[in-house]
Amino acid sequence: MVGMEPDEQHDESGEGEPGEPSGRSALSRRGALAGMGALAGIAGIAAVDVGGFAYARGWLRPDALTPSRFADRFENVYGRHDGFRRNHAKGLSATGTFASTGAAAAICRAAVFQPGSVAVVGRFSLGGGLPDQADKPDTVRGLGLLLEANGQQWRTAMINIPVFTDATPQGFYERLLASKPLPGTGKPDPAKMAAFLDRHPETAAAMKIIKQSPPSAGFADSTFHGLNAFYFTNSAGATVPVRWSAVPHEGPPAPPAPPGGKDYLFDELIRTVAQRPVSWRLVITIGEPGDPTHDATKPWPTSRRTVDAGTITISAVQTEGPGNARDINFDPLVLPDGITASDDPLPAARSAVYARSFTRRATESKSPSEVSVGRVVGQVRS
C-alpha cells in the first residue's frame, strides 16, 4: 500500500488479480416502503466500483462471495458492457493540480501534504453499470483522484452523499440483489426491497440522512465525500482517525445548461471547464474517541475539528481513452506513507472488486465513451 512506483499509475502494471498489489490477501417492513423510492434513486451507489468481500477479515467463506461473483452480479443487474467499469461506467477523465496549504502536515507525514503543488489525474462519474445511461439529478456522482508526490501515490474515490448506504460488504451485496429493476416497471421489487430494509436498519437510517442532503445542480458545485475512515500518522508517530471531503470553491456562475439532454450533467461540466478551472477545498475531519471508524453509514458529529489541507483544481477534462483516467484503478488502498486503512471493511472489499473489474475490461474491446468533450466544446465555439 505504501509507495506505488510511478509506472504503476495505470492498471496495466499488475493489478490484474485481487490482492496482488502490496501483498494484500485475495479478498480482502416497518418504514421500509417509505424509503424505497429514495433507495431506488441511488441503486447504482456502489460508489466507484464499490463491491464487497470480507474474506481477508474472516467474515465470509471464500465459496460464498468472491470478486468474480460480485462482478457477475453487477453484470446481471446492469448487463454486460465490454471495456467499461462494472460500476460507475459512465465517466469523464480530468487533469489538474492539488495545492497543499501545509496545514495537514501536522497530522500526516505523507509528502502530498507538504506545502506545494502536485499533479492530479481525476475521473467524474455516475453510479451504476450503464455507460450510456441518461444523466439524472439524483444519480450518485463520483470523483476519483490520483495524486503523486515523491514517487508515492494516493488514490481516493469520493461520492456526493454524506454517508454510505451499507455498513458491510455483505449488506452491499444484498442491496445490489434487492435493487435489480423489474422489466415491467424499471424499479426494484417492492417486496424484496422492503425485506432488505427490514433486515438492515442501518441502511434505512442512512437513507434518512441522505434524503436530507439533496444533490446540487451539477458536478462543479457538488461536495464529494470519502465516507470511509482512515488513519493519518505524522512525523512524530502520532495517529488520528480521519475522513475527508472535497468542498467546492465559490466561483463565477457556470454556463447555463440547455434543457434536457441525455448527458447534461457532463456537458455542463465540460462547458464550465472550457471557460474556467473548477476547484474544491480538501477538508480533513479528525475523529475523536468513540467516533465509528468501521461503519460508513454513521456520520461523525459536525463539531469535529477540520483541517483545510489545500485546493484541488481541475483545469482540463478529456473524453475517456487510452492513457487517461479510463485506465486507472482508483483502488482506495493505494496509500502513501502516513495514511493507513482503518477497521472499515469496505475499502478492502472495494480494492478486490476493482481489481477483478479491471481484469475483465482490460481484455475486452473498447467502445467509444458516451461523454464526448469534442462535441460539447465544438458547440461552445460555434
Highlighted features:
single chain; 21% strand; disordered N terminus; 8 helices; 10 strands; Catalase HpII,  Chain A, domain 1; 10-stranded antiparallel sheet; alpha+beta; 382 residues
Q: Looking at CATH, which topology of the domain at 79-162 and 213-381 would you report?
A: Catalase HpII,  Chain A, domain 1
Describe the largest sheet.
Answer: 10 strands, antiparallel
Structural class: alpha+beta
Name of the CATH superfamily of the domain at 79-162 and 213-381: Catalase core domain
**Uncertain runs:** 1-63
- The H-and-E topology, N to C, reads as HHEEEEHHHEEEHEEEHH
Compute the gyration radius: what is it?
20 Å
What is the mean pLDDT?
A: 83
- Tell me the quaternary state: single chain
CATH architecture of the domain at 79-162 and 213-381: Beta Barrel
Q: Into which percentage range does the β-strand content fall?
A: 15-25%
The coarse overall form would be: globular
Family: Belongs to the catalase family.
Biased composition (Low complexity): 371-382
Enzyme class: oxidoreductase
Organism: Mycobacterium conspicuum
Characterize the structure shown.
By secondary structure, the chain is an alpha+beta fold. It has a domain of about 250 residues: Catalase HpII,  Chain A, domain 1 (Beta Barrel), CATH 2.40.180.10. Helix content is about 25%, strand content about 20%. It is built from 8 helices and 10 strands. Strands 1, 2, 3, 4, 5, 6, 7, 8, 9 and 10 form a 10-stranded antiparallel beta sheet that branches. A hairpin with a 5-residue loop joins strand 6 and strand 7. The longest helix has 17 residues. Belongs to the catalase family.
